Amino acid sequence: MTARTPTQIAQQWLDDFESSLTQRDIARVLSLFGEECYWRDLIAFTWNLKTSEGKDEIQSMLAATLEHVAPSHWQLDGEASEAGGIVEAWFTFETADARGKGLLRLKEGRCWTLLTAMRELKEFPEPLGMQRPKGAEHGANKQRETWLESRQREEAELGYERQPYCVIIGGGQGGIGLAARLRQMDVPTIVIDKNPRAGDAWRNRYKSLCLHDPVWYDHMPYIPFPTNWPVFAPKDKVADWLEMYTRIMELNYWNSTTCESAHFDEASGEWVVEVVRDGKPVTLRPKQLVLATGMSGMPNVPHFPGAETFEGEQQHSSQHPGPDAYRGKKVVVVGANNSAHDICAALWEHDADVTMLQRSSTHVVKSNSLMEEALGPLYSEQAVQNGIDHHKADLIFASIPYRILPDFQRPIFEAIRKRDADYYRRLEAAGFLLDFGDDDSGLFLKYLRRGSGYYIDVGACDLVANGDIKLRSGVGIERINPRSVTLTDGSELPADLIVYATGYGSMNGWAARIISQEVADKVGKCWGMGSDTLKDPGPWEGELRNMWKPTQQQALWFHGGNLHQSRHYSQYLALQLKARLEGIPTPVYGLQEVHHLS
């Protein structure tokens, strides 16, 4: 027999899959899956972000969705490939209401992992490419309205004479990117942000802040960064880009606006959102409310005995202005993750006497090692040259179910551990407490599970290793004195400034503040996936809690994450909102239960 090519193998599987789905023969569909199998669906079948693990879960999902989804037109998209016994193939498909794209992995001819992702609604395609708007209105028209007049009219009317369909609270990169998608989908939307200018959430952070993720990972929707954009963008450059983006993408962005309260009116099926804009109260009544207040939520500020007696300054890292005013001062930074390292390094550069207080272990990885070993295959100039742009990279990363993502990541971080063995030995010799995650799966899993506990090293670790940044590890603060802190081992550190680089709480803290504690408890904890590791308690949930998908509170959504996640998942959130605006049925399969209130 002639050996079949990867494309032929994938084509045969896809043909059998389509035939079985068309005949609604779920038993035959299941025969095409291996004993270990995963189907991750991004709203195409489930109107949810849902991973079905194993044949029983896939059977339940299909039994509930197959009839009304009516999938069809499964076609390979390019040639399939094979590596290590795994055949990979891109494909496109349609449902009753949408078009989608997916990625298939086969082991020994049967499906191991399947990704199905909605890309557009058939009846409401975005005005892109061949669908782009004409712009100019040719011919004679005595009622002609210019583009500028139209924008001015919209800005004057929306929120006053007519209501937005969606209100987004939070105008950082997440809210801005989602609003851009909703704008293109013709969903009337207002973004609310307390700051005077778009981008101020970045401008107002400590002055040395730069992105630790590379440019290829960080593009915004529709307008990628130019090819001369720096690999690691400084915060003020990011801020200016966001301000420009907000104008160019024609967003209805209400700056200098605070949200005082919000509640859902069951009778009318709409939110009542009370805001103050430029000092004047305004009541908004959107059908959908999105909290884009930052994945990290409310600042965690610890309370130590004696804090009220301290005669110096105390700041959370989100309030830290930078190092300029602290030359020659004694500074204690509580924490040992990204912000703590950045702040310590900047203070040292400005001749402050700085001590890092590391209470528990931290995962550290050198920026170059992370770039080359972990991100490079998907997000790098080499990846782009290999035909993997950020759109394709996003889907490849999304196609790996969270259950098995640790298995993909461990070899990468084991290679980094060996590559940088001397570096790690130096840090440990200085007393630094190191880890690679609960199961040695490294940075990305720590981020997904708890959103904290790591530092991408851009230089501070050398200062820790050689003692320029002083280190006290394995201890905490017992009490705060007028000019010092007493540690749990009984020692004392003099201090003029205490910086709490102690992270943030769950996003539903904002739901409690803006809406109510009852609603915050109703939707439960945001972020984490039930891995039963430190700060991510079980049971296993398989997807990030509450992010970019329906919640237990009708018409309330959470949007956030890093630039990569905000860009990618904003598309699915925008499609869910657009479908509801247009009255397309959106039966949600697998609405996540609430196991943790905060």
Automatic annotation (TrEMBL):
<dbReference type="InterPro" id="IPR050982">
    <property type="entry name" value="Auxin_biosynth/cation_transpt"/>
</dbReference>
<keyword id="KW-0560">Oxidoreductase</keyword>
<dbReference type="Pfam" id="PF13738">
    <property type="entry name" value="Pyr_redox_3"/>
</dbReference>
<protein>
    <submittedName>
        <fullName>NAD(P)/FAD-dependent oxidoreductase</fullName>
    </submittedName>
</protein>
<dbReference type="InterPro" id="IPR032710">
    <property type="entry name" value="NTF2-like_dom_sf"/>
</dbReference>
<dbReference type="InterPro" id="IPR036188">
    <property type="entry name" value="FAD/NAD-bd_sf"/>
</dbReference>
